[in-house]
Structure formats: structure tokens, C-alpha cells
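WARN retry 2 of 3 for item q-0093 after timeout on previous attempt; input resubmitted unchanged.
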Amino acid sequence: MSSYTVSVTNEATYSGSICLFQLFPRLNDPSAVTYIWRAAPARPFAGQVQFTWQPKYQFMWRSAQDGESAGLSSVGAIEHKEASLWQNNAVVLLKAASGSYYFSQPYAASDSELYYMKADRTVDPEDKVRIGLSLDSRAVVTVEAHPNTLTGFHPEPVTYLVYGHWQAGQVFEREMYMQQALALSFNGRQQLNVHISASNLLQLV
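OK item q-0093 returned
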């Protein structure tokens, strides 16, 4: 599996964190939440910051806390299951009689082009459980889990870089900060170089 690398040179006017997040343009769910997936502190003029990853996703569910809507990252419970297209691209979320949630074993869906997550009829919306995808066991995107629903995630999200004061795992409020983010268009390449200028602008170089 191919890996991707982003190298960032920071010449900004303040110290902050260089962060990555991913958006799934074909995900039409109003409850979708995006998370800062990777973050690294970066002082200006202190060398490059580099991120390398493979697009190997996991299915995840998490029980949301009240702080989620305020951009906090706390969770009550969480589970990850390895996912892969063509072989294990679907999973079912169920609620046990004891009240705990769990995943079925991943299986191959008839459509092998998306990652599918089904919420079983036992799922209770009052529990505020969220389902979605993670990378390296770090949350990328989640939606609200409702009984008897099927959510498909397209495997080609757009990766963005943003500079500021976020932490990995934090909810990224797209409505407020999207204009500060830089889309990382690889277009067949596996490595990109980004420069943060003295006017705090992010640019591909």
C-alpha cells in the first residue's frame, strides 16, 4: 500500500500546531463531525515538520460526551476494527442486552467500492453513539448512529492541512475555520511540500 508524506516549513509569526484532517465530500450526513487527525507542535524557523501515513482505515464507534459539541475530544467508550476494501469493507454496530455496544466481525459487502457501516435495530439513539472511520486508531470522521441505517464512506477523502492551536482528536469546526485550511491535492504524487509564510499563509511549493 502506498504511503503519503507532507513536509512543512514553518516561517509563521507565532508558534502553533500543524494539523491534518480529512473531509469526505460525498458524505451527505448533517450529523457528520470532522476531527483533527494528526497534529504536531511547530516553532517558526525550527526545521521541517513531516507527516507520513498509509490510507489504511479502521471502523470505529465511540460514545459521545457532552463536550463533543464544544469541540472537546473526550469519549466514554471506543472500539476500532480493521477495514479493507474488497475483503472487509462492511461492519455492523450492535447493542448487547447488557447495554454495551460492539462491532460484528467485518465482512465483504456486495459493493466493494465503499466502506459500509450498518447500525443494527438494537442501537438506541438516546445513547448518542457515533460511528465512523479512524486512521492509526485516531478518529477521522463520525456520524450519529441510528437504528436500521446504513452509512457509506467513499475511500478517497480530501486531506487538509491547517495551522493553529488544535490538538489531535479535537473536533474541527469547519464552518468557522475552513478558510484557513489548505487542500493537499496529491494528484498521483506521494509527497508534498508546504510552506507557512511570514504572513501566516499556507502554500504548496
